[in-house]
Amino acid sequence: MMRSVILLGLVILGVCASGTAHLIAQKRFERLLFALGKPVEISIRVFNVGDGDALDVQITDNWPKDSFTFPNGPNEAFVEAIPA
Question: What is the pLDDT of residue 81?
């Protein structure tokens, strides 16, 4: 088993089946201008470019909890498998 970790203010953990999973994360801000008190929408896409499936993938987008709130959704997700 292999665990994969990607840090960009974003953490992805996963376990690989046979072969090797190589996960690439893309974090996108939907707007380029920010203002205090206005919502910031972010989308995260994860791709597996390896030759093995990534299993039990935990995705966490780490932000300072004293500076940001998450009113419209969580800052983490769990995916059972990302196929090769």
Answer: 92
